[in-house]
């Protein structure tokens, strides 16, 4: 029998600050896999096409105001509404490549400095709503040093695209990485050097992913479980 039939698709997540080159690399990866004849699809978070996604989009464009807790839960709900389809695709042998996931959810919300307190939302509050979502087999954190990020930062108009917010989020991403390694082990999260040309970064990513896109043995895990 075909040995590949016992393998499921890999769930690969890309994370990082705004303007780190993440979306470019995700698109190139999905293109490459398709050219190689593999079954792969892109999943963007937030997915702005759904009803919840439209609320998130309005918030990010400052067309709507929302309590910090409420928007945090909407970002999570936006993942939950896609979770069954992700699981199903993985089990059908499709590699799912996500552009952001729960880790952005935690890092950005925890980084917020509210007017009433000196801290963002409590880290533990940020973590809980995503508990038992599909667990990524690998998260690639696109790491750009602060100086390079500042040089690149042709920020857009969206809500979190400020130097202060990005610096605070950078710190939270370190804590998120530690949490992933603590709960799920050291192999689930890799920092990828995002400096250099698109091709150089692409090569590093290819090296980090290795044979994962050939399929994974074993069930899809649960996040934070
Ligand atoms: P995008 O630019 O990749 O579309 O993401 C929009 C912004 O939303 C970006 O600044 C990161 C932020 N974000 C959260 O705050 N929480 C989340 O759960 C996700 C997925 C993104
Ligand atoms: Mg953006």
From TrEMBL:
Assigned GO CC terms: cytosol; nucleus
Cross-referenced CDD domains: TMPK
The UniProt record lists the keyword Chloroplast: no
UniProt pathway: Pyrimidine metabolism; dTTP biosynthesis
GO BP term, example: dUDP biosynthetic process
Residues in Thymidylate kinase-like domain copies: 14-205
UniProt-listed InterPro entries: P-loop_NTPase, Thymidylate_kin-like_dom, Thymidylate_kinase
Keywords on record: ATP-binding, Kinase, Nucleotide biosynthesis, Nucleotide-binding, Transferase
EC main group: transferase
GO molecular function ontology, one term from the record: ATP binding
Protein known as: Thymidylate kinase
Taxonomic source organism: Kwoniella mangroviensis CBS 10435
């Amino acid at each position: 029998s075909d040995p590949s039939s016992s393998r499921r698709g890999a769930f690969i997540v890309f994370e990082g600050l705004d303007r780190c080159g993440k979306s470019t690399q995700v698109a190139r990866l999905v293109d490459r896999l398709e050219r190689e004849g593999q079954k792969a699809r892109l999943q963007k978070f937030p997915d702005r096409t759904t009803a919840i996604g439209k609320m998130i989009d309005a918030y990010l464009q400052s067309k709507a105001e929302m309590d910090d807790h409420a928007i945090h839960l909407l970002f999570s709900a936006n993942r939950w509404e896609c979770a069954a389809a992700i699981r199903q695709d993985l089990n059908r042998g499709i590699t799912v490549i996500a552009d952001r996931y729960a880790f952005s959810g935690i890092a950005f919300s925890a980084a917020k400095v509210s007017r009433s307190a000196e801290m963002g939302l409590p880290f533990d509050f940020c973590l809980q709503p995503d508990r038992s979502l599909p667990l990524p087999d690998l998260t690639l954190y696109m790491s750009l040093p602060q100086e390079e990020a500042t040089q690149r930062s042709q920020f857009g108009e969206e809500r979190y695209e400020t130097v202060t917010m990005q610096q605070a989020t950078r710190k939270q991403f370190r804590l998120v990485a530690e949490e992933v390694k603590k709960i799920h082990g050291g192999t689930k999260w890799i920092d990828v050097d995002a400096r250099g040309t698109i091709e150089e970064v692409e090569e590093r990513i290819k090296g980090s992913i290795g044979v994962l896109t050939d399929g994974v043995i074993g069930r899809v895990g649960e996040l934070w479980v």
